């Protein structure tokens, strides 16, 4: 909770003091008009439908809103989002690009997230997050920092040293700024994966243990820790851990990010 509050304050303060490429703030009257359009065409129209079972009505509502005001970035994001969740990334991309065009501050890092986790465009994700950091600083998107997603993208590009270097700096920064109680187990897990890929078995185990201290039944961390033990010729420990990992994985105790219901995450084990 402390981390969420700190991030929210940081984002609000930064937004007030940062000049970016987003459109000039509209007069209050225009903002009120846009809020009314969002209420009419999203809350009272699109959101009355399930986009999985009735994509057509969802999109028709948003299109009517865009006919009234095509500069509302939220309309474009809501138009893009269901296509990404349906794995129709190329259909959704132009709409998400429009959201970035009309509100870069809000949707540039969101687009980077969608490229990293959904469409698997890792080089493009790095470009988006590096631009976001240059413009606004290293903030958070979907519970993780912009640097986290850059490091995760490097893992997926097999550039393990770059990923390690970023994690080695990012985790201490978060520890200092937010405290140990607010470090995310997923950050620790992927930091451990970077060490794992570089065959730094003891360092990887230490990070997996930190993740497991937060999420004791985390099957993916147990799995990779088991492999580390095997590489260290600790076969008995490796076998025991692998059995535990399998049991927890079959119970569904895996990566628990909100969007895991739509996308399989990097290094996630299929049990």
Question: Brief description of this entry?
Answer:
It contains 13 helices and 2 strands. It has 271 residues and is mainly alpha-helical. Among the domains are: 28-102, Alpha Horseshoe (Serine Threonine Protein Phosphatase 5, Tetratricopeptide repeat); 184-271, Serine Threonine Protein Phosphatase 5, Tetratricopeptide repeat, CATH 1.25.40.10.
How would you sum up this structure, described in words?
A hairpin with a 2-residue loop joins strand 1 (140-141) and strand 2 (144-145). The relative contact order is 0.07. With 271 residues, this protein is mainly α. Among the domains are: 28-102, Serine Threonine Protein Phosphatase 5, Tetratricopeptide repeat (Alpha Horseshoe); 184-271, Tetratricopeptide repeat domain (Serine Threonine Protein Phosphatase 5, Tetratricopeptide repeat). Helix 4 packs parallel to helix 6 (104-119) and helix 12 (219-231) packs antiparallel against helix 13 (235-250). The protein has a two-stranded antiparallel ribbon with strand order 1-2. It has helices at 2-17, 28-43, 55-68, 73-85, 89-102, 104-119, 122-136, 146-156, 160-178, 185-197, 201-214, 219-231, 235-250; strands at 140-141, 144-145. The chain is elongated, with a radius of gyration of 21 Å. It starts with a helix and ends in a 21-residue tail after the last helix.
**Number of DSSP E strands:** 2
**What is the CATH architecture descriptor of the domain at 184-271?**
Alpha Horseshoe
N-to-C series of helices and strands? HHHHHHHEEHHHHHH
What about the largest sheet? Answer: 2 strands, antiparallel
- Give the overall average pLDDT: 92
Write down the overall geometry: elongated
Number of helices: 13
CATH topology of the domain at 184-271, by name, is Serine Threonine Protein Phosphatase 5, Tetratricopeptide repeat
Low-confidence stretches: 1-22
Helix content: over 70%
Radius of gyration: 21 Å
Strand content: under 5%
